[in-house]
Amino acid sequence: MKIGIMGGTFDPIHLGHLATAEAVRESFSLDEILFIPAARPPHKLGRLVTDEHHRLQMTILATRSNKFFRVSDMELRRTGLSYTLDTMNELHETFGRATELFFIIGADSLADLKKWHAARELVAKCHFIATTRQGVDVDFAAVEKFFGAAANEHIHRVTTPGLEISSTDIREKILRGRSIKYLVPEAVEEYILREKLYCGS
Ligand code: ATP
Ligand code: MG
Q1: How far, rounded to the nearest angstrom, does the alpha carbon of residue 135 sit from its chain's CA centroid?
Q2: Quick check: CB of 12 below 6 Å from ligand 1?
Q3: What is the pLDDT of residue 108?
Q4: How far is the CA of 96 from the centre of ligand 2 (A)?
């Protein structure tokens, strides 16, 4: 089994996340993609993140039409900070050691990978797929220098269709009363309106 992991705050999940996951699934022949909403992302401690129940619900709604997409609440159930190392270990326990894990990250995060908790151990034991958009440059030489031979085998790069969408932009649009149609799946748009998320009230 080869499983792709798409982690994120998903506040809210949008078509950029979904299109990227689907493109990666096909190009790496992954058996499924597991979407894992993060509890308290260490790098976003400064910002108030929407209630996890809502973020989980939107992720479920967004992924239900794709039979290769699944959602896990494992990081939400964990207390304290979420570390990818804990997630990897838990997934290896669930799926067995023979299952290969592919963590999907934005190419911009690739430069920071060396600063992640237990970075070298992670790269030795699972795969990372850095998704980059046309015209975006990543200093892969620096990554190779830090991770050595493991980088060649376990860190992959792929160019995915560049959807210029971000959750930040979606939240701002809602706050200003603008449309978010065609940026998120319809079911997510309906959920956001029904639950009055991001509207500042
Ligand atoms: P925010 O604006 O709040 O930072 P975001 O849109 O970046 O949100 P995250 O939940 O932070 O979404 O991202 C989860 C993962 O998805 C990260 O690895 C990020 O690099 C990637 N990602 C985010 N937006 C896109 C996009 N438009 N296309 C491809 N990948 C994306
Ligand atoms: Mg982001």
Answers
A1: 21
A2: no
A3: 81
A4: 30
By three-state DSSP, how is residue 124 classified? Answer: helix
- Ligand positioned closest to the Cα atom of 18: 1
Instruction: Using the Cα atoms of residue 154, residue 43, residue 16 and residue 7 in order, give the sign of their dihedral.
Output: positive
Nearest CA to ligand 1 atom 13: 8
Q: Against a cut of 0.90, is the pTM above it?
A: yes
Structure tokens at 185: 């799946």
- pLDDT at position 139, please? 83
Q: How many residues are listed for the chain in this entry?
A: 201
Q: How far apart are CA 5 and CA 75, in angstroms?
A: 12
pLDDT at residue 42 in the model: 56
pLDDT at 140: 84
How much distance in Å is there from the Cα of 20 to the middle of ligand 2? 14
Domains of the chain: 2-164 (3.40.50.620)
Residue 170 CA: nearest ligand 1 atom is 2
DSSP string, 48-109: PPP-HHHHHHHHHHHHTT-TTEEE--HHHHS-S---HHHHHHHHHHHH-TTSEEEEEEEHHH
Residues lower than pLDDT 70 in the chain:
40-47, 201
Residue 38, SS3 per DSSP: coil
